[in-house]
Please model this.
Amino acid sequence: MVAKKIGDYLRHKLTLEALVAWAEFAMQEGDFEAKHAETLASVIGRLGFADVEDFALTWDDCEKMLAELGYSAHVEIVAA
Model:
């Protein structure tokens, strides 16, 4: 679910504001699978601050978080 949200944001299917709101809600719920709780809390917590200027969300940030979750991001360039 977290990787999907990051992917939706990178594909412009989800605004930064919506991503942050989702992350804040997810952190409040805090219902993370025990074996992945530390990683999920770290990544989701970071997403919750993405709208703060000092914590702006970059492509590199997204790549790193996806890697922590066991995913990778790829860019595909197509004619418009």
Q: What stands out?
A: The chain has four helices and no strands.
